Amino acid sequence: MLKVWQAGVATIVVALLSLALVALDLSDGAFRRWWSARAFTTDAIAGILVVLITVLIVNQALGIRRDRERFRATAAQASMVLGQAIRTTRAVLARSTSGDRTTAADELRTYMIMLMLAAPILIDSRTPRTFLEQAQKLAGMLVQAQHPESQLSCKAVPSDEQLEEAVQQLKTKATPLLTPLTAEERTAAGTEETSPL
């Protein structure tokens, strides 16, 4: 399939060529007589132009459909990653009060796996890539908070406020990506939650 700009340029060229031939046929008697004397050539060129216009229109329609499906797939991935980021951050923050390190470790492991799986889809263009970078930054902060004993003395363990701020930044980066999804789809992924964080 042609890229969007290539298909657009090709459509304009074919349309201009068709219009030029029609204008010449209507205005120039010598041109009209030349084409009338060569019926097979006239039919072949007209057929080729019709096929080109049809192929370009179908290509544009398929490109629009492909882009819409890609936007929805990207939105779904971002929604799942954001939902897991929220759950993981909650578990890591709750660990400090409840002492339940197992749940936080399981949620963090799931979040890291989701990031690895979503990366090929999210890295394609600028907005999803920015979201992915913020999600990876949050993952690093969560690992530091989950395992403070393994940190070097030069690295500070992120505070609860820093983790909450990182999740808010991730939500902000996700907002443009989630527009293709309905509220029910966002709620199902855990990104539309009533509780804070």
Describe this structure in words.
It is a single chain. This protein is mostly helical and 197 residues long. The chain has helices at 4-27, 29-37, 39-98, 101-122, 126-146, 160-174, 183-189. It folds into two domains: 4-63; 70-189, no CATH class. The chain is built from seven helices and no strands. Helix 3 (39-98) packs antiparallel against helix 4, helix 3 (39-98) runs antiparallel to helix 6 and helix 5 runs antiparallel to helix 6 (160-174). It is rod-shaped, with a radius of gyration of 28 Å. The model has no long low-confidence stretch (mean pLDDT 85).
Short description:
This protein is mostly helical and 197 residues long.
Instruction: Label the structural class.
Output: mainly alpha
Radius of gyration: 28 Å
- Portion in strands: under 5%
Number of helices, where a helix is a run of at least 4 consecutive DSSP H or I residues:
7
Low-pLDDT runs of 5+ residues are: none
Mean pLDDT: 85
Query: What's the helical proportion of residues?
Result: over 70%
Strand count = 0
Q: What spatial form do the alpha-carbon principal axes imply?
A: rod-shaped
Straight-line distance between termini: 43 Å
**Biggest sheet details:** none
Number of domains: 2
Q: How do the SSEs run, as a string of H and E?
A: HHHHHHH
Keywords:
mainly alpha, 2 domains, 7 helices, rod-shaped, 197 residues
Indicate the topology:
Layout: H1 4-27, H2 29-37, H3 39-98, H4 101-122, H5 126-146, H6 160-174, H7 183-189
Helix pairs in contact: 1-2, 1-3, 3-4, 3-5, 3-6, 4-5, 5-6
